[in-house]
Write a structure and sequence with these properties.
By secondary structure, this protein is of the alpha/beta class. It is built from 5 helices and 6 strands, in the order βαβαβαβαββα. The longest helix is centred in the C-terminal third of the chain and has 17 residues. Belongs to the azoreductase type 2 family.
């Protein structure tokens, strides 16, 4: 069965990413053609990139890198839930991505961006990173506005406003179908 990781891309206290990732997961688990798992980079215990060799070589010497490598390699595709911090993805997510190379190769990625402007630039930033890692990404994305889609910025999704339940389902379908073909 296809395995898709839904990766929470923020470690910030009080973050909204976990709420969004759980929303995506609730939609995803209604499918029976793939298995989905939430991955929280806050629990990965990755320091700033500290491997002496580039990840392209796969010559890891740190136990935290080996653990992260095994975790990421087990999936056929990913949905990145990314905040928009200063028009880019979070440093924590970028760092977690940069630890590895081959583990990401020839897989699929979908995106759910969030922020004051829906995380649009953060997703654009990740698309560039995915291209370098030989990860194919689905064209459409979910963009969740903290201003429109959340009530009082408190982590409570206001589903009746801007969120489109069918939209995330469509992104997941593309990610699953394309992962099956890769």
């Amino acid at each position: 069965m296809i395995k898709i990781a839904i990766i929470i891309g923020s470690t910030r206290p009080g973050r909204n990413g976990e709420t969004i990732a759980r929303w995506v997961y609730e939609i995803a688990k209604q499918r029976n053609d793939a298995a989905f798992e939430l991955i929280d980079i806050a629990n990965s215990n990755l320091p700033l990139l500290d491997e002496p060799k580039p990840p392209l070589f796969g010559k890891y010497v740190k136990s935290h890198t080996w653990g992260w490598s095994r975790k990421i390699a087990a999936f056929d595709g990913y949905v990145f839930v990314t905040p928009g911090y200063n028009q880019a993805t979070s440093g924590a997510l970028k760092n977690a991505i940069d630890f590895l190379y081959r583990e990401w190769n020839n897989k699929m990625a979908g995106f759910a961006g969030y922020g004051m402007s829906g995380g649009t630039r953060a997703v654009e930033n990740l698309r560039l990173n995915m291209g370098e890692l030989a990860v194919a990404d689905v064209r459409a994305e979910d963009n969740i506005s903290l201003h429109i889609d959340f009530e009082n910025f408190n982590g409570s999704l206001s589903r009746g406003k801007g969120l489109c339940h069918a939209g995330s389902g469509c992104r997941l379908e593309w990610c699953v179908e394309d992962s099956a073909g890769s």
